Amino acid sequence: MGHAAHYIQPPLGLAAVGAYAEFHGFGVEVLDLEVYSPNYDLARHLESRQPKIIGIGGTTHTRFPAFEIARIAKRMSTPPWTVYGGCHATFTADDTLTHIPEIDFVVRDEGEITFLELARTLSQGPPSPSSIDGLSWRDGDRVRHNPPRSRIKNLDEIPHGRHLLEMEKYTLIMDFLKKPGVSIVTSRGCPYKCNYCSASVMFGTAYTMRSAKHVVDEIEYCLDRLHIQAFKIHDNAVTISKRHVLSLIDELKRRRVDLPWECEIKVNTVDRDLLKTMRDGGCYLVDIGAESGSDDLLRSVRKGNTVQQVVDVLKWSRELGIKTKLFFSIGHLGETLEQAMTTIRFINRYRSSIDRPLKILGIAPYPGTAVERYALDHNLLGEGFRWSKPIEELAPGLVFSNTVPLLLQPQFGREEMKRCRVALYRSELKRLLTSPKAVLEKLREIGGLREFFKVIGYVLKNFLGRYRPPRNQ
After folding, report:
1. Which of 97, 231, 314, 427 has its CA 20 to 30 A from that of 109?
2. Which of 98, 96, 113, 123 is nearest to 21 (CA)?
3. CA neighbours within 13 Å on the CB side: how many for 270?
4. Beta carbons of 380 and 435 less than 8 angstroms apart
5. How far is CA 247 from CA 113, 216, 377, in A?
6. Which of 356, 167, 160 is nearest to 262 (CA)?
7. Torsion angle of the four alpha carbons 90, 93, 94, 95, in this order, in degrees rounded to the nearest 10
């Protein structure tokens, strides 16, 4: 129902791990299979390169292709060591190493130093992984988890690694501007502990930042080589530190980098003055994780802000000429149908102040989150659920979103999802049928009459209540 610029996100985390190893003397190649044909012959490529170590990244949604990469690697004439890392790998290390024999090691949390130390020991002969913090590994039939590694304090020591990627294969067309841009990560960590998000568990609640100089160096790199016309700060919320966002604005001005930019904010970390400074510094769009129109639900999911704070930021943004993109999600842990309908009423009430609302129906219990722990403890994911188990073997009663199950609860299951879906599409249909301005906005958003009528048909189908849960994939 909402729309966002869909593009393949370059694997900046994997590139940073590779660039850090390269900086310390290793030969590195980063291969992003998402930008190649599905028929790409990975086995042939690996045989031609004969790597000694293969680092594999990915997300919960791409875990099965990641496992397949490890299987292909292990069929090589000289099988390499396989190392799996990232957020999903971090929180499923035991499951992965127990059930995916083709993966030798899992790098947990921040990967740069851990992967470098592992590469050093693997290149020197028989591996000795027991002393490497942040590493999980298989010792015979037993899985061992070394102590966690301390957070990296100076992020400026990590190269961005874009030179290792075929950056011309990634096209980010910035929302509303329709100009080419890139994503930039300027910080790690999050002091908030939203129960559906793994960010604070993955990187910790300490908020670490790159220096403004280091960030703008990367922006200028992209400006010179990729000819970007805008950029997106891809942090959890750049305004967590007011000092940080102000230093970025000052550095951009000092170096006369005059580009529009988008960022995500936390509504309880900004005021009108800060938003004005951001707007004057080039910020044209703010992303807001509004989630719900119910204060009770916001408290229960530990969001850390109130509905009124969202309303205030909408008002200030409208006054200052900053566009807004709001994310709403329905089906949270403990959510009732009435709370969900409160969210839908909030969207309808403030729709004219929101430039783009994105509505997500269904909460995924991602690994490492409190939602996942609750779902496992209450057997909501089915008997014997594990993330490494093929989808077709999982409980048939689950609803899936691209290989990730959605949370079904006694008080909020299929029927409640159906009612919310119908209510969302009913309000969208009403808006399109009664507002010429809404029609024009939708036409600009999706790009033409043909696509517009496809949207109308989809909305009508859902308005009539034809709800079918996604098939197990």
Report:
1. 231
2. 113
3. 31
4. no
5. 27, 11, 44
6. 356
7. 110
pLDDT of 416: 96
Closest CA to 197 of 122, 303, 100, 281: 303
Task: Please state the φ and ψ torsions of residue 401, each to the nearest 5 degrees.
Answer: -125, 100
Structure tokens, 219 = 């922006």
Domain boundary assignment for the chain: 12-145, 171-412
pLDDT tens digits for 414-426?
Answer: 999 999 999 998 9
DSSP assigned state of 282: T
Fold observed for domain 12-145: Rossmann fold (3.40.50)
Token readout for 427 is 């309000």
Report residue 133's pLDDT band, with 50, 70 and 90 as the boundaries.
very high
The DSSP bridge partners found for residue 288 are: 265, 326
Q: Is 335 helix (H, G, I), strand (E, B) or coil?
A: coil
Tens digits of residue pLDDT in 426-464 = 998 888 888 887 777 767 666 666 666 666 676 666 655
Cα distance between residue 214 and residue 211, in whole Å: 5
The CATH topology of domain 171-412 is TIM Barrel (3.20.20)
Q: 129 φ, ψ to 5°?
A: -80, -10
Taking each helix axis as running N to C, give the angle between helix 337-350 and helix 307-320, from 0 to 180 degrees, rounded to the nearest 10. Answer: 20
pLDDT digits (tens, 9 = 90+) for 152-204: 999 999 999 999 999 999 989 999 999 999 999 999 999 999 999 998 888 87
